[in-house]
Amino acid sequence: MAAALACVAFSVAPVAATSYSMVKEYYGSTFFNDWVFYNNYDNLTNGDVTYVSASEGTQDQLAYVDSSTDHAIIKVDNTSTVVYDNKRNSVRITSSDSFSVGSLWVADMYHVPYGCSVWPAWWSQAPVWPQGGEIDTFEGINLNTQNQMSLHTETGCTAVSQNQTSTLITSTNCSYAANEDQGCIVTDPSTASYGAGFASAGGGAFVTEVASTGINIWFFERSQIPSTLSGNASTIDTSTFGIPVANWPSTGCNIEQFFEPQNLIFDITLCGDWADGVAWNTSTCTGVCYNDWVMGNGTDYDNAYFEVGYVRVFSTTGSNTVVSPTSASSGSSPSASTSSTPSNSGAGFPHGDVWMSATVVVVVGLLSSTLF
After folding, report:
1. pLDDT digits (tens, 9 = 90+) for 168-185
2. pTM of the entire structure?
3. Phi and psi dihedrals of 256, rounded to 5?
4. Euclidean distance between CA atoms 365 and 207, whole angstroms
5. 11: burial class by Cβ within 10 Å (0-12, 13-18, 19+)?
6. Which residues are tagged catalytic?
7. In this structure, which of 262, 273, 280, 310 has its CB flanked by the most CB atoms within 10 Å?
8. Can you say how many angstroms the Cα of residue 320 is from the centroid of all Cα atoms in its chain?
9. Are 312 and 25 in contact (CB under 8 A)?
């Protein structure tokens, strides 16, 4: 995924505005109710972590709701001492529900994980990969200062003539079979979109729209969040968002063909296929990724956490189109043996049923503060 950035100029025009009504919210004391914990070692991206169960996450304070803020905390274990050949505990959760093409999800985050060896992501994937597609809204590694967004699909989806503010285009072929599955990558030019810069700015909001006309991602740092995303708004009007930072129009990628209903995923792994190797050697991090960072007392991971204010899902129809899963419940564990083929971007095994509606929106919120 780490490739030299190619600056490509595209004409910029407004994207079509759409209004949405809220149909799903993850917030406060019930935030973790509708997520499945992976509960297995990272056999998807070869990271040096063990993803905990729901009960372990609560007991060890790796996945919990801060009662003073009502914000959800998702973090890497920063208190245990890890000895050689062991893994550090972390969290990977997948929404029980999935959301159909035509949806838009917004993530308002206050803090995101960062630091040497750290590889966090807020993304989505269909239950069968790569057939159902993958959307990486937020992803970064090590001491990077900018968020990287991408799509991963079967062969036939490309990024063309983007109407977007970013000119940092690494690749335009979204196929998993091309370029070692780096996907079609767009990097946010803002240094407030990832890492220490994100925390210093008080976090921000990520908005992901999955419409039949294209996929759009917006990022607003805290001071620039539109009023339509503030408070407890039950409706969203994308006309207030302006031009997205990343855009993959349907003229180059048939969204309804390449993207099936998506499960939402938060995860934090360490080292692994991307954060280690070539990316590690070209970063400013020192030593050996596992030996000098994962091993030890864990204080290097004091900043390796998400703080999420909320996740909200909206639909253009305003109707309740959630299909509750029948074979999984919050805290259950998917079997590692049934995992789909992972991508190089953090893709792996999602779990859940589908949304039957064609248009949906999701919102997520995170906070910057000194917690640990």
Report:
1. 999 999 999 998 899 999
2. 0.85
3. -70, -25
4. 10
5. exposed
6. 134, 139
7. 262
8. 24
9. yes
**Domain of residue 169, CATH code:** 2.60.120.200
Query: Contact 366/114 with Cβ under 8 angstroms?
Result: no
Query: Residue 151 forms beta bridges with which residues?
Result: 135, 184
Please count the structural domains in the chain: 1
Q: Which of 86-90, 126-130, 357-361 has the highest mean pLDDT?
A: 86-90
Write the DSSP assignment of 306-350 as a string of letters: EEEEEEEEEESS-S--B---SS--TT----GGGPPPP-TTS----
Whether 348 is in a domain gets the answer yes
Torsion over CA: 272, 277, 282, 283 (sign): positive
User: What is the per-residue pLDDT for 155?
Assistant: 97
The C-alpha atoms of residue 144 and residue 146 are separated, in whole angstroms, by: 6
Q: In this structure, is residue 233 part of a structural domain?
A: yes
Position 318 confidence tier, pLDDT thresholds 50, 70, 90: low
Q: Which domain holds residue 149?
A: 6-364
**CB-hemisphere CA count at 13 Å for 74?**
34
For residue 277 the two structure tokens come to 């190797």
* CB-CB contact of 316 with 19 (8 Å): yes
Percent of the chain with pLDDT over 70: 81
Residue 30, C-beta contacts closer than 8 angstroms, at least 6 positions apart: none
d(CA 46, CA 294): 13
Query: What's the pLDDT score for residue 232?
Result: 83
In a domain, 220, yes or no: yes
